[in-house]
Amino acid sequence: MRPALFALFLFLTAQAHAALTVDGYKEMQKKHGKNNEALELQVRMYMDGLLDGLFMISRDLPENKKSWCIPDDESVTDELAFKLFKKELSKRRAEYAEFSKLGIQVPFSLVMVDALERAYPCKK
Fold first, then answer.
1. CB atoms within 10 A of CB 114
2. How far apart are CA 120 and CA 107, in angstroms?
3. Whole-angstrom Cα distance, residue 120 to residue 124?
4. What would the pLDDT profile of 67-86 be if each residue is shown by its tens digit?
5. How many angstroms separate the CA atoms of 66 and 112, rounded?
6. Contact 49, 110 (CB under 8 A)
7. Cβ pair 22, 111 in contact under 8 A
8. Which pLDDT belongs to residue 99?
9. What average pLDDT is seen over the chain?
10. What is this structure's pTM?
């Protein structure tokens, strides 16, 4: 993990007590079932608000400081965001499991930023 990203991760972890985390999501899946439509809807609604915040922050950054670049003709819906999120969870499963073993709670926001960076890299 890049040093700046790790520092951001630690900051977000400290600030994420009320935020959804990867471990919290897994616990909800255990309790309510992995294919629970109500749970998926709630998570998608949470992600919709999360994306609003991430996009507002990103909007004001200079182009050379942006970490993801979504084409103007494409929109990220809550459904697409949830798919990207699940794909990122799958790709980094071992890493997130290691964090969990260390007692580090990975917030959804960090997973979503990583997912957006992977899906929409900026051309440098």
1. 23
2. 20
3. 12
4. 999 998 998 988 899 999 99
5. 14
6. no
7. yes
8. 93
9. 85
10. 0.78
